[in-house]
């Protein structure tokens, strides 16, 4: 199976699947002329990482993720490649969440309903691969996926880094050539795909260190040293109490230079 075949099926799914559309007359729009019918995701970036790339082992270091982070072949014996994608939010959702303080309603829907779509997209790729007689596994759909002490045993952002899709920001979002306002997905497969070439060497190479995300953070969880995940999660928990089942924030991904592109580095 070729990556081009997967890309075409994924693009078709993004453009035609009703899960990528929110139709809710109760949605509060930031513009009185905005339609209640809202598309969540634009077409994604897709990359490939080798399942034997040396970077996977480094994620087991305590100062990166930790020893509990599972390698591709620990998830899927015989793993050869990892397909990773970045779904960028549409302009409407990004622009809505540029407001200060409260999370835009569009973003709340985009985050919650958008992840339901993301679950379906991961499963689509698994099904496409298995129809060809190969094996595939999406860690976030597997019962072994766990989050403990604010760290999970599989990081799709780190998988995207290995797959050449982007590097990390001060807020620890992933910055891609389509920006940081989006979500990742990943599927491990047991056949070889040509790995995407990484055009960077540093983990934060695309970050301009401008500090805009720190100024945007309502929880003040970000400073020049990075993000305090504990403070961030306490704020998200308050959002869940306010907007259940939805939640969002992500002010660090909107209204910043890396929202929809790689920012220009200073100096």
Automatic annotation (TrEMBL):
Q: Say which domain of life the source belongs to.
A: Bacteria
Task: Show the InterPro entries listed in the entry.
Answer: 4Fe4S_Fe-S-bd (IPR017896), 4Fe4S_Fe_S_CS (IPR017900)
One GO term in the molecular function aspect is: epoxyqueuosine reductase activity
A Pfam family recorded for this sequence: Fer4
For the 4Fe-4S ferredoxin-type domain, which residue ranges apply?
Answer: 197-227
Q: Which keywords are on file for this protein? A: Iron, Iron-sulfur, Metal-binding, Oxidoreductase
Q: Which PANTHER family match?
A: IRON-SULFUR CLUSTER-BINDING PROTEIN, IRON-SULFUR CLUSTER-BINDING PROTEIN-RELATED
Q: Please report the name of this protein according to its UniProt entry.
A: Epoxyqueuosine reductase
Lineage of this protein's species? Answer: Bacteria, Bacillati, Bacillota, Negativicutes, Selenomonadales
């Amino acid at each position: 199976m070729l990556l081009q075949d997967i890309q075409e099926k994924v693009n078709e799914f993004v453009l035609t699947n009703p899960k990528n559309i929110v139709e809710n007359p109760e949605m509060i729009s930031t513009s009185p002329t905005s339609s209640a019918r809202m598309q969540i995701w634009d077409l994604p970036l897709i990359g490939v990482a080798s399942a034997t790339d040396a970077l996977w082992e480094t994620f087991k270091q305590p100062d990166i993720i930790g020893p509990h982070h599972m390698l591709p072949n620990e998830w899927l014996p015989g793993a050869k490649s990892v397909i990773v994608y970045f779904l960028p939010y549409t302009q409407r959702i990004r622009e809505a969440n540029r407001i200060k303080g409260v999370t835009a309603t569009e973003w709340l829907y985009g985050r919650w309903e958008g992840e339901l779509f993301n679950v379906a997209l991961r499963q689509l790729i698994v099904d496409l691969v298995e129809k060809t007689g190969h094996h595939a596994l999406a860690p976030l759909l597997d019962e072994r996926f766990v989050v403990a002490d604010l760290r999970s045993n599989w990081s799709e952002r780190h998988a995207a880094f290995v797959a050449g899709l982007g590097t990390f920001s001060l807020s620890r979002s992933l910055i891609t050539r389509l920006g940081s306002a989006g979500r990742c997905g990943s599927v491990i497969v047991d056949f070889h795909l040509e790995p995407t070439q990484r055009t960077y060497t540093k983990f934060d190479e695309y970050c301009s260190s401008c500090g805009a995300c720190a100024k945007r953070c309502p929880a003040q969880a970000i400073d020049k040293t990075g993000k305090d995940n504990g403070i961030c999660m306490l704020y998200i928990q308050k959002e869940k109490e306010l907007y259940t089942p939805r939640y969002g924030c992500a002010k660090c991904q909107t209204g910043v230079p890396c929202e929809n592109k790689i920012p220009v580095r200073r100096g």
